[in-house]
Amino acid sequence: GESVGLHLPTxxxxxxxxxxxxxxxxxxxxxYFIWYKQESGKGPQFIIDIRSNMDKRxxxxxxxxxxxxxxxxxxxxxxxxxxxxxxxxxxESPGTYKYIFGTGTxxxxxx
Amino acid sequence: xTGVSQDPxxxxxxxxxxxxxxxxxxxxxxxxxxxxxxxxxxxEFLTYFQNEAQLEKSRLLSDRFSAERPKGSFSTLEIQRTxxxxxxxxxxASRPDRAISEAFFGQGTRLTVV
Lengths: 111, 114
Known about the structure:
The structure holds 2 protein chains of 2 kinds. Chain A is mainly beta. Chain A is built from no helices and 11 strands. Chain A starts with a strand and ends with a strand. The model of chain A has no long low-confidence stretch (mean pLDDT 90). The mean pLDDT of chain B is 93. In chain B, 0% of the residues lie in helices and 49% in strands. Chain B is built from no helices and 11 strands. Chain B has strands spanning 5-7, 10-13, 19-24, 31-37, 44-50, 53-57, 65-68, 75-79, 88-95, 104-105, 109-113. The A-B interface holds A 4, 31-32, 34, 36, 41-46, 49, 51, 89, 91, 93, 97-104 and B 4, 6, 31, 33, 35, 40-45, 48, 50, 55-56, 91, 93, 100, 102-108, 110.
């Protein structure tokens, strides 16, 4: 069935270093991908998105890379800060109106 | 606050009781979603509305669950005869009627069934 998975359940990064969070997806029909950040007790917050006709998209301190050949998505956070500590989810939209989420990666920023 | 609003934020109920949650989406958003999230998991799709029409219900949504969006604005999610397995965070999201766009989530309603 359709699934969105994450390679690492927990990622610990030193403050100031770059973080890379990876995600694999299985539906070749997915044409839109989103990264969300979720802090404890809060709803998911949009970070950045990318369409399937792009390989890379940059935001403020964040970059999303899409490799359709191997169905892989990554989120890069530059100069990781304590406020970046949260659970990060990738989600895919397989040409429909809904989003399919993975199980999430917890990012811990070490001081 | 112009974001997605959910009420209540927390609900503790006894098994067998009925509960109802409310979601107020961003005003110009036609599309509204309900998701359920358990600890350590990603949100799971429950149901979707376009305006007042409920267009899809997940197999996760048993007969005890019902959702409405009567005027195409706010939505309610009711769970009848709650079970302990219903304990979860219930998230509402909305998005505009563009072909591709992100969904904006509310803060969720945390349900605990005791």
